[in-house]
Design goal:
The protein is mainly alpha-helical. It contains one helix and no strands. The longest helix has 122 residues. The termini are far apart.
Length: 129
C-alpha cells in the first residue's frame, strides 16, 4: 500500500509540475495574444490611413487633371493673344506698305502717262501741248 501511495504521490507531483509548466505556457501565450492584438489594431489603423490616403489621392488626381486642362486653355489663349499682338504690331507696317504700294502704283501710272504724252508729242508734233 505504501508503494501505491508513493506512486500516487509521484504522479501528483508530476502532474503538479506539468500543471506549473502549462501555467507558464498559458501566461506566455496570453501575453503573445495581447501583443498580437495590439499589433492587429495598429495594422488596422495603418490600413484605414492608407485607404484615406488613396481616397485623397484620387481627389488630387482629379484636381491635377483640372489644372492641366486649365493650363491647356491658358496656353491656347496665350497663343491667340500672341497672334493678335503680332497683328496689332504689324498693322502700321501693313498700312505703310499699302501707302507705299499706292504711291508706287501712282508713280508708275504717272511715268506711263509721261511716256504716252512724249510719244504722242513725237507722233503728232502739230498739236500744241
Amino acid at each position: 500500500m505504501e508503494e501505491m501511495i508513493k506512486t500516487l504521490t509521484d504522479q501528483v507531483t508530476e502532474h503538479g509540475t506539468k500543471l506549473a509548466e502549462h501555467d507558464v505556457r498559458i501566461n506566455t501565450a496570453e501575453k503573445n495574444i495581447s501583443t498580437l492584438s495590439e499589433k492587429v489594431e495598429d495594422i488596422h489603423k495603418i490600413a484605414s490611413s492608407v485607404e484615406l490616403i488613396a481616397h485623397d489621392m484620387s481627389y488630387m488626381k482629379n484636381d491635377i487633371s483640372d489644372v492641366k486642362e486649365g493650363q491647356d486653355e491658358l496656353k491656347t489663349n496665350q497663343e491667340d493673344l500672341k497672334n493678335k499682338l503680332l497683328e496689332v504690331e504689324n498693322a502700321p507696317d501693313k498700312k505703310k506698305a499699302s501707302v507705299v504700294s499706292k504711291i508706287l502704283e501712282n508713280l508708275l501710272w504717272l511715268f506711263i502717262g509721261g511716256v504716252a504724252v512724249y510719244l504722242l508729242t513725237q507722233i503728232l508734233p502739230s498739236i500744241k501741248w
